[in-house]
Amino acid sequence: VEGWFSATLPTAGIRRRGLSLIRADGDLYTSTRDVLRALYQYLQPGGVIYIDDYGSFGGCGKAVDEFRDERNISAPLHEIWETHSLTTSKTRFFEAVWWTKGSDEPFAEVG
């Protein structure tokens, strides 16, 4: 789907049973927030959400933290660390997070 998340995701045509995985790579506060607002309600309980750039772009992490706080999401955040070889030495850095949607969280049935 081509276009800004805020314009395309609300009309993306999510099918009946919802989503089992969301992988968001929006980099910025607004785009990450837009993905969470548009899609999280369709993530099935037990589904996984993976947020790229949580550790490398401050706005992305802020959007995730605010979203989880607003909805009282208490599922643990699991960190993803990456290693890159930019020169002869390897650099390890905190890149992403994921969590599993709880069975007590709302789920929007798609008709």
Automatic annotation (TrEMBL):
<protein>
    <recommendedName>
        <fullName>Methyltransferase</fullName>
    </recommendedName>
</protein>
<dbReference type="InterPro" id="IPR008884">
    <property type="entry name" value="TylF_MeTrfase"/>
</dbReference>
<dbReference type="InterPro" id="IPR029063">
    <property type="entry name" value="SAM-dependent_MTases_sf"/>
</dbReference>
<dbReference type="Pfam" id="PF05711">
    <property type="entry name" value="TylF"/>
</dbReference>
